[in-house]
């Protein structure tokens, strides 16, 4: 009987040991901080972990020098039985601590595109009463970006209109250079004299700027780098990413709320503050938000100091809080729940967020447009920002990992160092 118990115990230990061997790569897949080992008790003396820097020592994904610290470094890890016999090895990413100030401020966003975007086709009525589409016939499509007309750069819709009219008068044709699906194309267009406007036209609706209201996500108090919105800015008509030529953010005030309901997303209705206490440049428009440098005074009454960033591996299902403005310029705190975490996604849909705060549900119906970028804090750490609302369920929406936003913002460093 005693032998049988001993054999059973040995079998259990052996099975546990085998399972541990299978799971070794997963145990240290990603670490949040520099730590000695995840093994506890007897296993800590049986299985030892050795960490060494690989030849490429560190891989930085730092966000413009955020907190003067690298976000992560990669390290080789070896698992050894009794510190002698190798069991497994692999590479892990060790995340370094970073502190940021959560946003929540309502911001007005204005940006000018690189070139002028084609947002629609417009028939030109000629002297014979016939409708024509000169640009369309030449191959210019909705979503294309007009770069040059007659070898002169165009940045505004008025510049496009004037250049076409002048070329039409002088020679009856116009040379157009434009971007089509990341390809630069050159075409000759024959504009038509429009009897309705008294000008030569080529039959396009164009737009050179965009504006809207959103929410600030974070500010690095050391570098003054900010992140906002949590998602890319696209053109309202073409739904294509806007290539930024110039832009800025300033404070905005919310004066009305259009409550969200099933099938109809709600919206914050606001206006820009003329004498804003802060302003920021827009240097990048990415999948996970807009980024630039901030100047002026940024205040969040809930956070007098910067708080730690919560990395992807720390985000969990459960309660959290968001910070946003629903009236005037006052930031308020609301409760939410993280219903689902989708790790290893690099876009802006990394978690499903459900509003649980009774007051926010009463006022807004849940997540509404203009709330994009509202910071999400869980267990005292900034883990992400609100990005999208579910059209058929306004109480729920997506959130982006703050880690993904920081990864995108790091491109600013590369640009400045070039």
UniProtKB/TrEMBL annotation:
This is SpoIVB peptidase. It comes from the Bacteria. GO terms for molecular function: hydrolase activity. It is an enzyme of class 3 (hydrolase). It comes from Desulfosporosinus nitroreducens. The lineage of its organism: Bacteria, Bacillati, Bacillota, Clostridia, Eubacteriales. PROSITE patterns: SPOIVB. Pfam families: PDZ_2, Peptidase_S55. Its EC number is 3.4.21.116. Residues 183-418 form the Peptidase S55 domain. Keywords: Hydrolase.
């Amino acid at each position: 009987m005693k032998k049988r118990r001993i054999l059973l115990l040995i079998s259990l230990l052996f099975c546990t040991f085998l399972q541990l061997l299978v799971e070794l790569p997963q145990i240290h897949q990603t670490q949040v901080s520099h730590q000695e080992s995840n093994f506890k008790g007897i296993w800590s003396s049986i299985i030892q972990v050795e960490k060494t820097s690989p030849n490429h020592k560190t891989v930085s994904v730092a966000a413009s020098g955020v907190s003067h610290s690298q976000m992560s470094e990669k390290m080789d890890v070896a698992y050894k039985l009794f510190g002698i016999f190798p069991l497994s090895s692999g590479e892990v990413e060790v995340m370094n601590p970073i502190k940021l100030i959560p946003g929540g401020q309502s911001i007005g966003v204005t940006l000018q595109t690189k070139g002028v975007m084609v947002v629609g086709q417009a028939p030109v009525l000629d002297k014979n009463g016939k409708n024509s589409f000169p640009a369309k016939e030449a191959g210019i499509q909705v979503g294309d970006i007009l770069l040059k007309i007659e070898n002169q750069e165009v940045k505004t819709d008025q510049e496009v209109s004037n250049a076409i009219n002048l070329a039409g008068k002088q020679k009856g044709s116009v040379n157009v250079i434009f971007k089509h699906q990341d390809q630069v194309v050159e075409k000759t267009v024959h504009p038509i004299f429009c009897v309705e406007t008294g000008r030569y036209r080529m039959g396009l609706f164009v737009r050179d700027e965009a504006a809207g209201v959103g929410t600030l996500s974070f500010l690095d108090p050391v570098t003054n780098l900010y992140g906002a919105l949590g998602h890319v800015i696209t053109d309202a008509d073409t739904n294509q990413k806007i290539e930024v030529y110039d832009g800025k953010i300033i404070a905005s005030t919310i004066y009305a709320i259009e409550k969200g309901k099933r099938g109809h997303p709600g919206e914050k209705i606001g206006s820009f503050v003329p004498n804003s206490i802060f302003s920021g440049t827009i240097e990048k428009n990415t999948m996970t938000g807009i980024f630039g440098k901030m100047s002026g005074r940024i205040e969040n009454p809930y956070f007098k100091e910067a708080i730690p960033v919560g990395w992807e591996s720390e985000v969990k299902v459960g309660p959290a809080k968001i910070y946003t403005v629903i009236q005037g310029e006052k930031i308020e705190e609301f409760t939410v729940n993280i219903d689902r975490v989708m790790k290893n996604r690099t876009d802006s849909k990394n978690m499903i967020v459900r509003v649980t705060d009774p007051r926010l549900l009463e006022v807004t119906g849940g997540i509404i447009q203009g709330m994009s970028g509202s910071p999400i804090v869980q267990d005292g750490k900034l883990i992400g920002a609100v990005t999208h609302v579910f059209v058929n369920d306004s109480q729920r929406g997506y959130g982006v990992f703050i880690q993904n936003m920081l990864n995108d913002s790091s491109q600013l460093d590369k640009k400045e160092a070039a």
